[in-house]
Specification:
Distance between the termini: 120 Å
Helix content: 40-55%
Mean pLDDT: 80
Structural class: mainly alpha
Shape: elongated
Low-confidence stretches: none
Radius of gyration: 47 Å
């Protein structure tokens, strides 16, 4: 390999074969700028009122949709017995009330306490 390198150096020499023409870089920028096309200034886009408020309108619609979905799927769980039409608790027979009282797992004293603290208007 050393022999090949010395043969090449003897034939070609150590002189650089590539040269830059005289005065090439003196007016390089001027020539380059002449070759480039003329550039018109960029137009500034006009922003309308709708383009400004559109993200806020979309966000408001999104939150309204979420609130509607939550209200629809979750719903209101606090339904009072007075809001249910057609059921009067004083007209229920004892056969229906006994299983309900047994399910509450109240002893007699707790039931007595509950009934004495209850509003007396509902039993009239």
């Amino acid at each position: 390999m050393k022999k090949e390198e010395t043969n090449l150096l003897n034939r070609c020499g150590k002189r650089n074969a590539f040269k830059v023409p005289e005065g090439y870089f003196e007016n390089f920028t001027g020539q380059l700028m002449e070759k480039l096309p003329e550039k018109s200034p960029a137009e500034v886009p006009t922003v309308t009122l709708w383009a400004r408020i559109r993200p806020w309108i979309y966000m408001t619609a999104m939150f309204c949709g979420i609130m509607l979905m939550v209200r629809t799927f979750v719903g209101e769980k606090d339904i009072q017995m007075s809001e249910v039409p057609g059921i009067n608790l004083s007209e229920l027979p004892d056969e229906m009330i006994d299983p309900i009282v047994n399910q509450t797992m109240m002893d007699d004293y707790t039931l007595y306490e509950y009934l004495t603290d209850a509003d007396t208007e509902i039993y009239q």
